[in-house]
Design a protein that fits this description.
It is a single chain. A five-stranded parallel β-sheet has the order 3-2-1-4-5, sandwiched between helices. It is flat, with a radius of gyration of 27 Å. The longest helix is centred in the N-terminal third of the chain and has 28 residues. The chain has 15 helices and five strands. Helix 10 packs parallel to helix 12 and helix 14 runs antiparallel to helix 15. It is α/β, with parallel strands linked by helices and about 325 residues long.
């Protein structure tokens, strides 16, 4: 999957209403598993670095203004809770000041959690240098007035688009995430710009999938992934499903056995795999495979459907009652 994320999406992780950092962790995990290829023009990297401090400044300015205080009517001072509440307010303001100071220290040293995750993400991306050819094409796009871009002075969006046109393989779809309207349709900002869509199809012979936020992208393409750790689980389950030899089945089972928890849906999927893939079902009597599925049954028997439980009992040739507790997995 070819993915492009506009600069504003990364900058949102430093803002008051920014998405949770876990979204970036999920993205990093998908990159590591080879599920996606993140295209990142050098222009975008530089734009991010230029705007990071301004984005943080806006957020921290609002945060600094916060003050914990209450206007008390004169008669309330006679109540015993008045002094206690005053002390709590003083403590809250003190902690607020300490938090602000510590955050500013990490901001100035670029040690925020967002900094760490984004730096790692950038290191795993496919960086596209701004060649003279790309720069000339971007200038031409700007002068003609073709999207994307704000058509003022700079040509950042134009450079990014020309980079994508050059580097994304033909006949492969592009998944594009951008919050602002540079890539949106003037008629409906939730839809992709019609001119850019036509240009992409004509040039790359593929399609563009457009999203306004990273959560929207994950919801549509990876609904089973709630946490970054789910990426690894999904990848291993997929490996088991695609196993074409007994050896690869044993390898997948050995890795899956190291995982502590599965969702009920994942357990159902693992049972289906044993039923459908004979490279798994035919050796379910082998000690490692049987042990793995036996522990699934013991740990999740009350969380999966009766049909799946019956199927698992049949596979294991096992009618033992599921009454075990605290079985290590």
């Amino acid at each position: 999957m070819n993915l492009f994320i506009d600069t504003n999406i990364f900058l949102d992780f430093y803002h008051l209403s920014g998405a949770d950092i876990e979204e970036l962790h999920k993205l990093t995990a998908l990159l590591e598993e080879g599920k996606i290829k993140l295209f990142m023009p050098q222009q975008l990297c530089e734009e991010f670095q230029r705007n990071r401090d301004n984005k943080i400044k806006d957020a921290m300015s609002e945060f600094k203004k916060a003050s914990f205080k209450i206007s008390f009517p004169a008669f309330s001072k006679l109540y015993p809770h008045y002094n206690e509440l005053q002390e709590l307010l003083k403590l809250a303001n003190k902690k607020h000041a300490e938090l602000y100071k510590n955050a500013m220290t990490d901001i100035n040293s670029k040690a925020l959690k967002a900094d760490e995750v984004i730096t790692e993400l950038f290191s795993k991306a496919h960086i596209i240098e701004t060649s003279n050819e790309i720069f000339s094409l971007a200038i031409n796009r700007f002068r003609i007035g073709n999207p994307p871009g704000k058509k003022k002075v700079t040509i950042g969006d134009e450079i990014n688009w020309e980079c994508l046109l050059k580097e994304v393989p033909e006949k492969e779809d592009l998944y594009l995430v951008a919050r602002d309207n540079d890539y949106s349709s003037p008629m409906d900002t939730d839809k992709f710009n019609a001119y850019l869509h036509h240009e992409w199809k004509k040039t790359k012979h593929s399609d563009v999938m457009f999203y306004k936020t990273l959560p929207d992208f994950f919801k549509e393409n990876y609904p089973e992934i709630k946490l970054a750790s789910d990426v690894k689980k999904s990848s291993l389950i997929e490996s088991l499903a695609k196993s074409g030899t007994f050896a690869s089945t044993h390898l997948a089972i050995s890795k899956l056995s190291l995982i502590d928890n599965f969702s009920p849906d994942q357990v159902e999927q693992l049972i289906d795999i044993a039923e459908i893939n004979n490279q798994v079902g035919w050796i379910i009597g082998d000690s490692d495979v049987k042990d793995f599925y036996k522990k699934l049954k013991i740990k999740y028997f009350d969380q999966i459907s009766a049909e799946s439980l019956d199927s698992l009992n049949t596979l294991l040739d096992d009618d033992e009652p599921e009454t075990y507790e605290d079985v290590p997995f």
